[in-house]
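Forgive a beginner's question, but would it be possible to get any protein sequence you like and the tokens describing how it folds?
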Amino acid sequence: MNDPSERVLTWNYLLTETYRIYWERFWGVFRIALLPAVIGYILTHGRRLAIRAAIHLHWLKPFPSNASDWAILTVLALAESCFFWILSTFFFAALASDILNTSGDQPGPLADAYSTARKRLEAVIAIGLLTWAAFFLGRGIIGLPITVAFSRSSWFMNYWALTLVLGIPLLMLAGILARFGLAIPELMQDPAVSVRQALRNSFKKTEDWELFFMTFLAKSAAIGLLLYWLYGLAIGFLWQYGWLNDQASVWIDRTVYISLAAVLEPPLFIAFAILCRDWKPAPEEPYAPPPIG
């Protein structure tokens, strides 16, 4: 396993190598993830304040009642999701640069990771926009008929049932789009590769890896839900015994939100970087001439 020529890309190898790098370089990875997590939180908080201000100034209604209100909210939601997606893509590029361009278990300087990503910023943004558009178009195509079909069913009022019915098709869509995930590490590895070539190479290298990506995403979502649930229990315990006040609760919420985002997002990106680094074409079958006679 220490010899690159001997590496066999299996699920077990990729998971083991991903979490080995994640834990051995945790603080370096966390520092790279912290900046986009903070920016994302500021954006989310700013959006809430902006909507409250718009409602206070009567530019928006508390509950949308016409097409104009719905259009404004839809545009705001799409713009926010697009920004988040591109921000996450840029963080992915910085992390991939750090994983691929440094040797050993110690990460390189934080500035180096982001400077390499900035050099290919246009290509990174282009891939972010393309994958974001594909995901949200696919989500609309999948979600609309399911919502219409189940809107009159009792399942529609059950959070977990609705999450399951919508979540499985969306997970499949994410698994397919994840096949383009190696394009970002390739951009960081090869300064000359184009966006089109990077996407094409990624789709080729990730053949038959869709189920792995789906499993990885489902596992990350389950861990995230578990951590948020445990956090809710801890906060409830602190409130119950009077060890918490409103001001402290706000700052704890912010810190936990940002920290969990910085902790949960990197593993999949590390897996993409390792898959890009260790991928090699399958050996060609030796030619066997057809039997005579």
Remarks:
- The two ends are 46 Å apart (CA to CA).
